Amino acid sequence: MTLDQFVAAKVGDVIAKERFCLLVAEGIRLTGISFAEVAHEFSTAPGTIGRWTSGASAPANAGRARVVRFLQRRAAASSGLDSQVECQRCPRAEYVSFAHCLRNGWPVCHGETMLLVRHPSPVEIQSATAAAIKAQLPKASD
Ligand SMILES: [Zn+2]
How far apart are CA 6 and CA 91, in angstroms? Predict the structure, then answer.
């Protein structure tokens, strides 16, 4: 699985144990995040994460999607996709680059601009916005 495929993998609210273990193993391999960091995020022991990646165990179904989405956010961030948008009429969600969308427009689904549900910090937004405005200003010679 590539980083892009992992980020785009559809994650429903219920994930079968085998698929969960595969996705966690792939997410950790692709992001290089440590067992300790994942364990800390979910208040569990590093050994537990090891058992998830080996397929020996998995958390209760209700907690699986949270773990996979956490790894997907990490993977998206490491590939420059720092924001997430969601359609308000269907389950479609996408990871996007904030700076890229400022310059080129935001994704549209069902005829409406998708809602920004995750974005960079205000400081990062400010500098990306300034850069986008500067890119659109006519050159002094125009
Ligand atoms: Zn939609």
Answer: 18
**By residue range, what is the domain housing residue 29?**
3-78
C-alpha of residue 122 to centroid of ligand 1, in Å: 27
Of all residues in the chain, what percent are helix, strand and coil, respectively (each to 5)?
Answer: 55, 10, 35
> For residue 127, how far is its CA from the centre of ligand 1 (angstroms)?
30
Mean pLDDT, rounded, for 31-42: 94
Q: Rounded to the nearest whole angstrom, what is the distance from the C-alpha of residue 29 to the centroid of ligand 1? A: 31
Please check whether residue 141 lies inside any domain of the structure. no
Quote the pLDDT of residue 140.
Answer: 64
Tell me, yes or no, whether 142 lies in a domain.
no
pLDDT of res. 71? 95
Could you tell me the distance, in angstroms and rounded to a whole number, from the CA of residue 66 to the centre of ligand 1? 22
pLDDT for position 85: 95
pLDDT tens, residue by residue, 3-23: 889 998 988 888 999 999 999
CA of 10 to the centre of ligand 1 (A): 15
Burial of 95 from C-beta contacts in 10 A (0-12 / 13-18 / 19+): buried
